[in-house]
Amino acid sequence: MEPNDGKAEPSNGAAELSPEKPATVWARRLIIAAFWLVVVCLGLPHWIWTTSIQRSDLPLESMNAWAEGKACQLHYPLHVGLTAPDLAPEHATSLASDLETLLNGQQNFRFHKFHIQTEHNSDGTLKPKQVLNVILNTVSAPKTPQATLQSWGPILNAEHQVGRPEDLKQTATFLANQISNIFEDESAAIWHLLKDTAYANGVRPLTLSPEKSSALDRRMTRAFKYAPAYHLTFSMFTPGAAPSAWDIDQALGEYISPLLRPLSSISDFTIDTQVQLFASFSPSIAGPAFNAEKNHWTLHYGDLTGFVNAAEWPLSPSIGEGPTINFVLYVPSPDKRPLLIDENDGSSWIIPQWGGVQIHNAPSTQPNNLTLDDLRPDMLIFADQLAGLLGVPPSPSSLSLRMSSLKRERATALILSASSTLGALSRLTLKLTSIAIPDSVAKSVDETLHRLDQACTNLREGQFQLALENARIAETEVEKAFFEPSMVGQVYFPEEHKVAVYVPLLGPMAVPLIMSGIKELKKLRERKQKAA
Question: Which of 15, 282, 381, 426 is 20 to 30 A from 460, comparing alpha carbons?
């Protein structure tokens, strides 16, 4: 044993760790790699699959083309038949050619083009695609030219003397003025629909008078939006116990059904009726006031909007498949008759996009039942109100021609609505990249584009009924696509919400894996440096 010289050996302050065995290092690396392998190969794909948003491809170029009015140039060919049995065939052909040139040269038609077709030995019925038939009498015609439009049929009976072939020019001018007057209001209405849209680009503006523009605004504002079906409700309200019955079924068959029959080609209609006794006025209005100067009871114009007591009167807006159009017949009590509007002494008014109201000022003795004769003036008012609420043009005098014009106007409005919604859907999908676009939306958009193409083709070919049907389907499909529930549910789900949801779940698991991986990489680099 060597003696201790009293000197202490130097110490590092800590015992050195023995080097790790290679098997231990490889085991640790395999464990870390296994965790990362599970995360990368299983966890990450599963997370991406469960959180990914399905976005079907949409034909954005076609959608924007319709929204910008580039996919279709709206065009309305009007085929008019000309029957002149007293003229020689060559003179009738010359008259038709002159008439077509004059009509298409007029300045008040922007989207219409007339086609005049001569007919021989015609019975007045329309041929396919024809919208009007002109029957010209030149033999027994008076000196003063005359023209009469049938009230129910699309037939114009004209009388004009043609003594020499040179008189055909005057006849053509006369007929051109008559036909122009028939379709002038329709041309103004369609221009009013299109003037603020891309479909009017490149078209020379049509100048309308302030009165005409105001009348078109009122007509389109109070009319219901087009629907494939409407429900009509006719209600009688009275503040007392009488009248308790009315011959409404006969009245509807006499005055309303003749109007609904031609309208059935545009929309379907269902009807119900009801009687409400002891119906009080709405508390929001002051009620009738007696006007001693006029010797009748009056309602102020400001009280008309609150006349209907929606809280107590059983008027449901959701009866039937489509919108409900309400018609209210109010029978005042005997001590408050006659009841009229103070400003104009009228007894009826229209509530835009809701219905119409008519005050029935019966005789002083209150009948228990309103007969068909009693209801005749009221039903005529209701028929006019129904036409206004459905957007039926007020002219021309022929109901058939007014229905034909309504088809073209409705088809135009539906094409505009569907095109606008396509543009909105395109902008929505580009702006909000986080919303889902399911396959059902893509199918609806494809169907919409197909139907719009068909509607445009139908319009250009003069098949206005088919154009209306295709435009109606297109508008329905695009509305279904735009309001798809799976899309609407994610519109207001920003990315910050996703971070707030996933960080608390993935953070505690990700930090140890990342730190262990970084630490192992550092050790690997140190070993390589020592070996070098």
Answer: 426
Sign of the CA dihedral running 35, 37, 42, 46: positive
Q: How far apart are CA 513 and CA 510, in angstroms?
A: 5
- Cβ count near 60 (within 10 Å): 15
> Does residue 390 contact residue 352 with C-beta atoms inside 8 Å?
no
Q: Which helix (H) or strand (E) holds 446?
A: helix 439-461
Rounded to an integer, what distance in angstroms lies between the CA atom of residue 263 and that of residue 404?
Answer: 10
- With CA atoms as reference, report the closest residue to 330 among 403, 292, 381: 381
Provide the whole-model pTM. 0.81
Closest CA to 314 of 304, 322, 323, 324: 324
The DSSP symbol for 2 reads P
511 has a pLDDT exceeding 50: yes
The model's pLDDT over 107-140, given as tens digits with 9 standing for 90+, comes to 889 899 999 998 765 555 677 788 999 999 887 7
Least confident of 217-221, 293-297, 448-452: 293-297
| pLDDT at 201 exceeding the cut of 70 | yes
Contact 24, 498 (CB under 8 A): no
Contact status, residue 435 vs residue 428, Cβ threshold 8 Å: yes
Query: Mean pLDDT across the stretch 335-346?
Result: 85
The DSSP-derived string for 6-73 is SPPPP--SSPPPPPPPHHHHHHHHHHHHHHHHHIIIIIHHHHHHHH---B----HHHHHHHHTT-S--
Alpha carbon distance 315, 235 (integer Å): 8
Region 369-394: mean pLDDT is 93
Whole-angstrom distance, CA of residue 137 vs CA of residue 87: 9
Q: How far apart are CA 309 and CA 229, in angstroms?
A: 26
**Distance linking the first and last C-alpha atoms of the chain:** 43
Closest CA to 252 of 267, 268, 228, 233: 233
Across the chain, mean pLDDT equals: 85
Query: In a 10 Å sphere around its CB, with 0-12 CB exposed, 13-18 middle and 19+ buried, how is residue 54 labelled?
Result: exposed
Least confident of 188-192, 246-250, 450-454, 486-490: 486-490
